[in-house]
User: Fold this.
Amino acid sequence: MDVHASVYKSEADRRRVHDLYRAELDAWPVAHDEIVVPTRMGDTFVVASGPEDGPAVLLLHGTMATAAMWREEMPVLAAGRRVFAVDVIGDAGFSAPARPALTTDAHALWLLDVLAGLGGSHVHLVGLSFGGWVAIDFASRCPDRVSSLTLITPGGVADRNVLVWALPLLVLGSWGAKKVMQRILGPAPAVRSEDQQRLGALSAAIFEGMRPRTGGLRTFTDDVLARLQMPTLVLLGAEDVTMDSGAIAQRFRRLVPGATVEVLAGKRHFLGDQSAAIDGFLRGARRAAS
Assistant:
């Protein structure tokens, strides 16, 4: 298991990222609580918004990110729901720096601890990229704990080897990190709001100062994907350089016939604000369960 020193390139990088993240949390768009949940992998930091008696929705961000990536979705999703934006372990947020092996059930066990600490028996699970991989892994192992599954550009289904071209750029400092971000996220808008500028500064600091995971994600077998019998939404970018969106769509349509699969034209790995699509799906999933 990797330790804290391996997550960031230096202590100064860690402080820079965490200071920018704290500024992002201080500007959170809705009222929120900050919760620390003890788990077998160490403490897990959670940003909770919305009514405490609302349906539980748990958000898992992608790698090289924090729970702040959900700030645009939060006002819509937290209207009538209790939304938990989790800092995934081993990443840039305030959770423990543990990076357990991706070939084991360690992340599923960690997420069970998180749910127990939050007092939930089941949850609507939303995961993006690496968070999507964690969500699929958990939902396939613990389907009775997942009311619905939303996957945004999920890893582990039809990945491309990004590290072949990304690692040489990342060693070139801020210039290389910027190039990696552009290829994955697309060019930044010419005019950005204050919120977008702040989040962009945080993302740049993470890409410059954090050591990426270098182990490839375990590819899910057909049998694993076929276990996803809960209501499922899959959102993909047609121009995603990190994965084969067409192959992902085909696998889900073949193996999870009830899944709703959308491939968005012109979109890369980061799809932008998808609150309307997620909100509509969650409303439908709740009606189907009632």
